[in-house]
Amino acid sequence: MTAEITSVLDRIDSSKEDLADLMLRLGNTYGPFGQEAATAAAVHSWYGDNGMESDYVEIIEDRACTVGRIRGDGTGRSLIYNAHLDTEASGVDYETLMAVPDPNRVGARREGDRIFGHTVQNDRGCMAMQMIAGRAIAESGVQLKGDLLLKSAAGETGAAPTDEYRGLRYEGKGFGTSYLVDHGYRADYAVIAETTDFAASWIQCGASYYKITIRGRNMYTPRLIRGETLATQPNAIVRAAHVVELVEAWAIDFEAARTRQTECGMMRPKAQVGAIRGGIPWRPNRSSTYAALYVDVRTLPDEDVATVTESISAAVRSTGLEVEVDLIMSKAGFEAPRSSIAPLLSDIEAAHRYVRGVEMPEYAEDAVVGMWRDTNVYNRVGIPSLTFGPSRGKAAEQGTGFIELDDFIDGAKIYALTALSMCGDLRP
Asked: Catalytic site residue 156?
């Protein structure tokens, strides 16, 4: 092994406490979805404190990204590590409807070598890991041939403007990463820094959001005349109960018809009703003339969204109810050709083998392949991309899981070795 590689790995080994402190610092910075600027500023400040180059990239007020950079001499391949700043929404919508404490306000805590907190699990733990790996390379003095970019992006998690929730504050699913790519922060390859249990996935589902509007009649409770079935009730909310049943049945068939084994794992494109609105909460003495369902549909890579729209529309209109189906967001999934990501995958596999002493898992968890991740942004523009990261503690309830610091030290070493190989032609 070269002295340069030894220097980098030794620096990571001695950075365990720094990694924990950085995870807690980022995890306890209040920066919910749509208000990521504070966390982006904390990342930018850390790079400055550690003598590293970075750009603070403002998108709109309260939304920003940060890009750290270790410059190469221009003679080799460049690489992006991409983590996301946002975790969840905040405020009254979350606190009254999600039945768990707001993870942005709960933050993160440490118990021994375990870090608790959803903000760290998704995704500031991986963000801290890539920052520590980058710092080890920068401080070692090794001269890379290609640039290494360390992105902390806003707006990865799912959201879409609708109803009164308008404007760029509500853009998600690759919003920040797309902005950075469109403004020149590009490279030859990209790794999405997310937890995958040390497996890799270069195939990801797409995501489409639908608003289904149901109409009804306004009837005062004492004068209410009920229909014989849910579908014939005058109240749009009651009719919506029937539509929910139709969507659930459609979603089960939709998933079954599209489930398939991929090179990265089992892909199960799922769908569910995630929100409902209707009526006046403080005046329930009138049947509602309006109810709306909001549906998340995961799609196969490159699936025609028009076909999906036709399918769900036919399902909810099958009983003749007066409904409107509106597509409010559609982000395509992508499958990178195996040949395009082969050099990157090979280097990650070699680094994993060296650090952990075993081969990488052959397949990622079903949920990993079934997610929309920022790999789709890069693969869409021809930058071969995959997602790879350490293990994320499983929990029956959001916020009760944890991550192991030793796993993330291993992850930092794998990231560093991959960067040295891809950007510097240095291999152990």
From this structure: yes
Question: What is the bridge-based pairing of β-strands 385-388 and 189-192?
Answer: parallel
Which residue among 86, 147, 365, 410 is the active-site one? Answer: 86
DSSP 399: T
- β-bridge mates for residue 68, sequence order: 54, 150
Q: Is 86 a catalytic residue?
A: yes
State the chain's mean pLDDT as an integer: 94
Rounded distance between C-alpha atoms, residue 367 and residue 268, angstroms: 8
- Residue 147: is the preceding peptide bond cis (ω within 30°)? no
Q: What is the dihedral of CA 231, 235, 237, 238, to 10 degrees?
A: -40
Q: Where are the domains of the chain?
A: 3-205+334-424, 206-331
pLDDT of residue 227: 87
What is the CATH architecture of 206-331? 2-Layer Sandwich (3.30)
Q: First CA to last CA across the chain, in angstroms?
A: 5
Q: Where are the beta strands (DSSP E) in 246-347?
A: 260-261, 266-267, 271-278, 290-299, 323-331, 334-335
Give the integer Cα–Cα distance in Å for 207 and 197.
Answer: 23
Nearest of 386, 398, 329 to residue 199 by alpha carbon:
386
Which letter does DSSP use for residue 50 in this model? T
Q: In what order do the strands lie in the sheet with 402-404?
A: 109-111, 114-116, 402-404
Q: At what angle do helices 3-13 and 405-424 cross, to 10 degrees?
A: 160
User: Distance between CA 116 and CA 43 in Å, rounded?
Assistant: 20
pLDDT digit string, tens, across residues 310-326: 999 999 999 888 899 99
Give the residue ranges of DSSP H helices in 259-304: none
Q: pLDDT, tens digit, for every residue of 26-51?
A: 999 999 999 999 999 999 999 999 99
Q: How confident is the model at residue 394 (pLDDT cuts 50, 70, 90)?
A: low
Q: Which of 36, 88, 147, 156 is catalytic?
A: 156
pTM (predicted TM-score) = 0.94
Q: Could you give the CA distance from residue 276 to residue 295 in angstroms, rounded to a whole number?
A: 9
CATH number assigned to the domain covering 3-205+334-424: 3.40.630.10
* Token pair for 205: 């589902």
